[in-house]
Amino acid sequence: MIGGTLLGRQARFSTRAKIGLGILLIWLIGVIVALDATLIEPCRVVVEEVHVPIAGLPAELDGLRIALVSDLHMIEIDSREKKATALINELQPDLIAVTGDLMRHTVLFDVQEKWAAIVSQWLSSLDTPRFGIWVTRGNSDISRYGDFNNVFMEQMSESGARVLVNEAIPVVVNGVTLWLAGVDFADFDRGFVDDFAVQTGAGEQWIETGPSEGNSTLHVWESEALAWENYEFSGRFMRQSEDGGIGVTFYSQFPAGYDRYYRLRNYDEQPTLQIAPHGTKITDGETDTGVEPAPGKWYHFRVQVTTEGAATRIKARVWLEGEPEPEEWQADCRDDSDARLSAGSVGLWGLSAGDKRFDDLTVRAVNASRSAWLEEGFEAYPEGARPAGWLAYGKNEGNVDLALAGVPASGTTILLAHSPDQAFDATGKGVDLVLSGHTHGGQVRLPLIGTVYTGTELGPEYAAGLYQFDDLWLYITRGVGMTGLPIRFLCPPEVSLLVLERAGP
């Protein structure tokens, strides 16, 4: 009886010991995983070399080496960023592509300046390859706060990198042309900005934007518009709500990625239409037209903007439809500051409640008899469409088309696109290779399960690696930095090396 009792106690002790040992083992595994995910793997930057077979690739481009880096989310240059620099420089690529989210997004201006300068310093630490360093903007690089965009673009310029803002640039490589295109990718909250679309009523067509919490803007996006100067911008507009702000912009640098422009606008705190600069200032003169647009009525506007020596002069007049145009300029002011604008595109602006309508837009050189640079009555478009050549800020639809607008169908084309979802818009348009990031490779991969979340429409199945979509290749890099929880597990940071190979005729 005593022996049986001792045996039972020993069995129970053995069972408890096994359970305790198991708990200890699980705890140790958890500690090891936590240490790896937070301290080790986030800094274990690796090189992924991938060869991309492209049918019909010119022999001169065979073997071209492209270093790809993305999603740095940089706030400092630490061991991870230094390791990425060393690896890229060791690879000695022919060109470097950086596909967005270079810095962590913030609304604090002092921090913006600091972090953007750090990104510029990091880019400057790269050995510039013979065909340059090319950057495209991701959602962390595009802000609803104007100074952020200006600081980012200025720092990129200082680093020597070239930012591709919905555009394509021909690069001559060994005597043949390689087209490098870059497309913006924004990610604003729903309702913050609204799109612009053609609408029809009472036998007329116009373009309008709806209610928005922030600035809804639409700009002429052709590169030639950046060089427009000494012009007159005219048309008509209507706001449907007493609370809604409405306006037009001119000498705008939006197509180049900057929030810098002059604007004729009114809004709740400023009921009359006035000249308002952004990214510069008015130094003297009258900015107020004195006109307070009533809701539900069309108003005509005429703005004349000219470069006069060391100053930019802006004159404007506004009048109710059906009434005679004023003979005198109601607003007449100047900007002779160091930041003054001397050329740029035109655009439309809306804010807050109600619909804002625009129509009969014309841009014509001052005192010129030749044809207008822009004549748009929106009559040639189906209802609900956004006209070609116009881009709504913060909306990704149409960006790829604009980026590829000048690329010949027969050219070899590489598209830098922060989100791999943008590859859908590139199919059938002569693009050979899309380089993307955004997914972070999922950042965390679970054993037997794999990637759980990527933040894309493509989903976890396309977290990282090389894929073929119809007529193009898509490569998704895991990126270097992190977002959300500062961890990586079974998904180390990546510097990619893409080697182009000639495949087929």
Q: What can you see in these coordinates?
A:
With 505 residues, the chain is of the alpha+beta class. It has 2 domains: 44-188 and 398-503, Metallo-dependent phosphatases (Purple Acid Phosphatase, chain A, domain 2, 4-Layer Sandwich), CATH 3.60.21; 196-387, Jelly Rolls, CATH 2.60.120.560. It is 18% helix and 36% strand. It contains 6 helices and 29 strands. The chain has helices at residues 2-40, 79-91, 109-124, 146-159, 399-403, 423-426, and strands spanning 46-55, 65-69, 95-99, 133-136, 162-163, 167-173, 176-183, 196-201, 204-209, 212-220, 231-239, 245-252, 261-267, 270-278, 284-286, 299-308, 311-320, 331-335, 345-352, 356-365, 374-376, 390-392, 412-417, 433-436, 445-446, 450-451, 465-469, 472-476, 494-503. The strands form 5 sheets. Strands 8, 9, 11, 15, 16, 17, 18, 20 and 21 form a 9-stranded antiparallel sheet that branches. Helix 3 packs parallel to helix 4. The protein is globular and about 105 Å long. The model has no long low-confidence stretch (mean pLDDT 92).
